[in-house]
Amino acid sequence: MTTGVTTELSERLARATEPAEALSLVLERALAEAGLARGLVIYSDGNRRRVLGFGVADGYIQKARRAANQEETVLSEVLSAGEAARIPAPDGEDGELQVVPFTGLDEQVWGALLLDGRSPPSSVEAVVSVFEQFTPVLEKVRLVRDLQGRAERLSKQRDLLTTIVNSLPDPVVLTDATNNIILANDRADQLFSTTPGDSEGRRRAVQLNNLLFSSFLTQSVISTRQAKPRELNLVDPNDGSDLLFEVLPAPMPQATSDGAFLSILRNITDLKRAVTELEAQFQRSRIAEERVREEWERLNATLENVGDPILVTDNQSNIILMNKEAERLFDAPAGDGADSRQPRAVRTNDTKFTSLISDFLLRPEDRRVEKFDLEDPDEAAAFPVEVVSSKIYNPRGEPSAIVSVIHDLTQVAENERLASELRTLNEELEDRISMATLELEERNRRLEWQSRELEKASRLKSEFLASMSHELRTPINAVLGYTSLMREEIYGELTDKQKNGLDKINSASGHLLDLINDILDLSKIEAGKMPVYLEEVSLRHVLSELSEAVEPLVREKSLRYDLDLDDELPDLFTDRTKLKQILLNLLSNAIKFTSRGAVRLAAGLRGEDRVWITVTDTGIGIKKDDLDTIFDDFRQVDQSPTREYGGTGLGLSITRKLIALLDGDIEVDSEYGKGSCFTIELPLRLSPGTREEQVKRALAPPDGSRHDARA
Fold first, then answer.
1. Do 105 and 140 touch, CB atoms closer than 8 A?
2. How far apart are alpha carbons 636 and 239 in whole angstroms?
3. Is this structure's pTM higher than 0.85?
């Protein structure tokens, strides 16, 4: 092989990225040097053997590949042995093949040459010589391809692990021996990391979290080398609320040379709050149970100490409870004979009392007083009694029990005394109920007063903000003005960093001015200081102006914009400025929440005295559960701190109030994931009315805002 040919082949091999490409170049050159017309190369690629051929038909190559990869074939056994041999041709025809293995730099067999069995030994040696000459290059291509494959697999595994860790709802943090955070998932970044656009309050909260976490690791994990769950208090950087985490640390000595710790922070704030509430409820239950027990003991003590017999019967006239005085009359002592005096007296008393209760159960009255004679089992003498029975009803209004008190009329004075005490107790209860009623009425009066004061404070707030519009806007406009002058280098040349800073100041100031304008508009409406200026308005002209105004926004997002107006679209007698603000808010929202598709503005006549205007988009749509809240003040569908779309949540609220101010209606038709359609309806001629009527229309609850969701 000449030097020029060798150099050219080496250069081509140096550009090869796959073992197959390099082997094909060497095989072609080796066969040419040996004067052979055809040959095959078999090499290992992972768990499979690949076959390359020169001067050989594709069908023959496929047969050789199957023979090399199938078990218990002659070619497979020879390749596994790694020694030179002669084997029958794999196509079943007469003839033999010479199998010559070749090795890498590590002397490991990773391929073999298949040459015609009739090739002279000198030709075979020439082919082997060429392969041995380029073995380092072939080995390098093979190793590079193996390393690339491993790198790709490692990269996929790393991406998969990163996705899994970031999808965990709990913060996961890996720290080194000095408590520095090495790795953290997205949830942990929200607690311990800041971005250039974060507020100063969030930065301080994140700094405090890092100090608390570092101190926790030093005291609980690093210093003691224990991996036990412990509680950690942190601060929510978004709203400043307290958070409680249970930290599950695990040593990771293989992560760094000095060792590391993996900490999983499980948020137990709500769990801790629930446990505290359950403990409080449990204590209250214990106290209530103790009170019930005391009341039950007091009731039993009262019943046992009452001189009159008291019985409780069920709805079948069976005695289920009685005091000792009643037991003496209705319960015979154990051991007495059936014919003795006391059992006979008890049976007589029970028969009379049961007959009374059974008859009382059949009657509609709630209380019954009956007089008859009972027998004294001890004295064997009858005595007159008065039985006072009262029904106790269950929730269904059916009598479930009867309480009966038996008064011994021979002791009328004692009974009157007990009755007087009972009346006194009832009067005390009534007095307590009366006092509780008066206290409740006083609380209601205080609540009504507080409600009026809150309403007054809200009205004063709205009036104050509405009157402070000039004072609030002037500083922001000054900032925007001087920022614009500095950006135009009126005061001298600026560096790139200074220009970047001024751009951020200008953007933030403009956003702040928009927020202030929204809040001031809402306050002016609530305070009744949003005047209505009526004039003849060409609706077609207004819609055309708005279409030209939003055209740059539509073009920037590559959306299609359609304008569909009724040919007989009439003029309106309304407030031109507020009409444009309403439609501009709806169009801006439609473009903002639409990433592909189209935005459509249409208008037409409805009846004889009203017009309709629709703004339709193919954007993200609105969920059915969110349709009831989209017109609320400071309300956005996505309230999370990581929401994709910004804003104050006042756009639709102000739009609804402005529409109401113009005596109009708005309805929403939306399918989540497919788009939304906002339709407003306005009168052809708006009657200005009084200031009170305008405020009442603007502040009316959004019951008239109809909506329909197909998703």
1. no
2. 17
3. no
